Structure formats: structure tokens, C-alpha cells
Amino acid sequence: MVASPAAPAARFDESAREGLRSAAQPAHARLAGRLSANVVWNLGSDLAARGASLWLAFFCARVLTVPGFGLFAFAQAAGQYAWLPGDAVLNSGYATREIARARHDPRRTAWDFYGARVSAAVALTAVYVAAVLALPLPPEQRGVLLAASLFFVSYALFPDWAARGLQDFRALAAGNLAVAAALVVSTSLVLRSHPSAPLATALWASSFAAGALVLAPLLARAFRLLPAHFAPRGWLRHTRGSAAFSIGAALAVAIGQAPTLLLGILCPAREVGLFAAGFRLVSTGLGLLAVLWWPVFTVLSTTVPSSPPFREVFRAFFTLMLGLSLPAALALAVFPGEILRALFGPAYGEGAGVLGLLAWALPLFAAVTVLEITLLATGGEVSRVRVHALALATLVGAMLAVGQRHGALGAAAALLAGLAVALAGFAVALRGTLKADWVAGPLTRILGANLAVGAFWLVARRAGMGPALVQAALGIIVYATCAVALGLGPAGLWRSLRADRPSPPPGSSSSLEGMDRC
Fold first, then answer.
1. Are the C-beta atoms of 418 and 255 separated by less than 8 Å?
2. 200-245 pLDDT, tens per residue?
3. Does residue 398 contact residue 262 with C-beta atoms inside 8 Å?
């Protein structure tokens, strides 16, 4: 029997697909290994930075007088807020993405960024110092504000954005450890014998220079930077792109801070305290999840959208963020009074209803973050500004409508409304990039595991199964068991990234390009 003409073609297509599948497996494995290593090193880096900052606050509060500590905190806030114009010239998030994309020839891009940031810092320092000297300020305030001016150049010299863009999170961890060590050692040795708010401010502001010294070899090795490259070419183009990053970041911060600020204007301080206690728990939980942001951002920025690697990283990111935040929110909603009284004191138990509602801001924040990072990685910083502006307007409108009448409870509801609008806006902005099945599968499994632990806690509370702490611990075990059984644990996510997934037929350039760029 003569073989049909289609048979050789079919065998060829099958062999081509097999070759693509075999090529995909190492690409997925490399992607998973790179992402895992980046997360681990970023975790160490983040813990070092946050730990040193927390230690500094505790140490200065004890060494300085109460007014002195107030001056120090005021100078820190003034320096960080005054840096926003400098960050608008070249935002670190924008720089990270562009360095990651320019990995084949990043030298010109790196010098454009470094030159723009340092030049902006020098100009900002001159304007800032002139303003502080010209304003009619008390001598103690003028002293700490002048000391804070060291922050601009010190921070601009610290190229953490370069380490992130190169995905060298080990170098980033070394830089942050150097900053933390310089901060802890200098303040411990100097402030104990010379307690002074301006001196404490100067030590904090200049500590970033230590990180710059540690990361300087990274810049020299990776970019082969020469002083002759220091020229303002391309600054305007990058500044325009960076400005959208900075405005979006400012609006995102405003969404988190607006409920507390408006509540302080509209309601008595007691309502602010009840809201702030619950919101501190939510923001702390979100801060713990922040360790995933930068590693995922750099990987998505260098991966072709809609390609298999992009899809798998997005699904893993979405699964981790929702898989961790949703059970945390459920625990806060089930045990709000017990948690508040244990952490803040008996008087805060009155805010149980507020925390029970506010808890759901945690998974909303997490979902918004996943879509926001994905949008930024694909060049959607302008859309991010529009979405956050609409969300902030919704939040402010809701606060003005219900905040004064319902106090802290109204502020919690307004925050949820703003986040819901942000989530919907980002989903619309990404409608051409994301596919429904990327979210549907993980979300179904996450909801199943949470329904199981929710049912357990409901039964445990009604049956009086020991103290609330015991019930919460048992629920965590139930959730972890269900998560692993449903493939939501680290091992399941690792297998999903490493999986040998079927590739599209030959001729689909996006898939091949995505694997090559990973």
C-alpha cells in the first residue's frame, strides 16, 4: 500500500513538535530555578533592609529624647518626600525594567539612568538646602532638615535598580546588607555617646553610600562603565517614561494612606485608632508578600507576553499571592476580636467589626498587585496611572459619602470599593494579554482550600475546640494539607514551571522567542 502524501508531513510535524517540547523543558527549568533563587535572595535583602529600619526606630526612640526622636522622624519623612521629584526624573522601577530589557547592550541605558539620577540628586540638594536656609524655621528643625539633604545624593548613588534589572539579587542582598550594617554600626557607636537628632539623621541619610560602594564593582563589571559615557543623552526620553512610573507609584501610596488621613479629618481620633490597628495588620501582611514583586517583575519584563514561560510565571505569582493572602484574610475575619486584643490590647477589641471587613482588603491588594506588576512589565505604566487615579477618586468619594457617618467601618468599606475598582481597571487594561484560564484554574483550587478551612473554623468555634489560638493553628494545618493536595504548595508550583508543556505548531514565533529570551 502506498503511503499517503500527508504521512511524511505528519511525521515531520510530530518530530518538530517533539523537538520544541524537549527545548521547552530546559527553558522552564531554568526559569523556575532563576525565579526561585531570586525570591530567596530578595527575601534576605528585604529582611535586612526592613530589620535595620525597625532597629533604628527602636534605638533612636530610646537614645534620643521624645522631642529629639520626633525631629528625627520628621526629617526622615521630609527627606523621603522631597526625593519624589528626583525619583520622577528616573524611577527605580522603570530603570529596573529597561535594564532587564536591554540586557544585550545595557551600557548606554545604565549610564543614562545613573547620570540622570545623580544629576537630579545634586540639583535637588541645592534647591532643598536653599529652601531650608531661606525658610523661617526653628534652629532644631533647620539642623535636622539640613542633615536630611545628604539622603538625596547618597540614595541616588545606590544602584539597586541595576542589580534588579540584571536579576543579580545576590549582589542586591550584599548591597542592602552593607547599608544595614553601616546604619546599625554607626548609630550604635556614635549616638550612644553623642545623642543628637541631626547626627542621627545624617547617619541614616548617608548609610546608602555603603551600599553604593558594594555595588560599584557590579556596575563596572556588567556595564563596563567609563566616565566618558556620563552624558545627558536620552535623559528626556527616559524621564518621560519614568514620570508615569512615579505618578502611578504616588497614586498607589495615596490609595493606602487616604482612608487614614480622611478619617482623621472627618472623625474623632478614636475611630482613626480603631481603623489604623486593623489596617496595620493588613499592610504588614502585604509587606511580607512584597518579597515576590521584584523577582517576578524582572522575569516578566524579559519574557514575551502570552508565551508559555510568561503564562507559567504569571500563574505561579497569582497562585502564591492569592494562596497566601486569602487564608490570612479569612483568619482575620474569623478571629478579629481575639487578634486585636492579643496584639494591641483589650481596648482594641471594639474594632473587631472593622477588622472583619478590612481583612478582605488583603486579597484585594494582592490581586491588584499581581495585575499591576504584570501591566508594568508589559509597558502599561500610563494605563496604571489612569486605573489608580480612578480608584483613588472612588475611594475619596466613598469616604466623603459614608466616612463621617460610619467612622472606621465606613473607611474600611471605602478602601474595599477603591481596590475593587483598581482590580477591575487592571483586568480591563490587560484584557489583550491575560487569558481567563490563566486565573480560573488556580482560583478554583484556592477557593476550594479556603472553603475547607472556613468550614473547619466554623465547626471549631461552635464546638468550642480550645482557645482561638489553637483553633487558628489547627486551621492552618487543614489549609496547608488541602493546598498541597490541590497542587498549591511550592512543590506543585515548581512542577508547573518545570513541566514539559506542548508547544504550538512550528511557525509560532512568539513561543520560540519567549523560550529564547528566558
1. yes
2. 889 988 888 888 888 877 666 655 554 444 555 555 556 666 677 7
3. no
Residue 20: closest CA among 457, 355, 442, 513:
513
Contacts 24+ apart (CB under 8 A), 214-218: 214/171, 214/174, 214/175, 214/178, 215/158, 215/159, 215/160, 215/162, 215/163, 215/171, 215/172, 215/174, 215/175, 218/159, 218/162, 218/163, 218/166, 218/168, 218/171
Question: What's the pTM?
Answer: 0.62
* Terminal alpha carbon distance of the chain: 46
Backbone angles phi, psi at 189, to 5 degrees: -80, -35
460, 334 contact by CB (below 8 A)? no
Measured distance CA(78)–CA(163) in Å, rounded: 27
The percentage of the chain sitting over the pLDDT mark of 70, rounded to a whole number, equals 73
The whole-number pLDDT of residue 281 equals: 82
d(CA 72, CA 81): 14
CA distance 339 to 331: 9
Burial class (CB in 10 A: 0-12, 13-18, 19+), 2: exposed
Rounded to an integer, what distance in angstroms lies between the CA atom of residue 307 and that of residue 23? 14
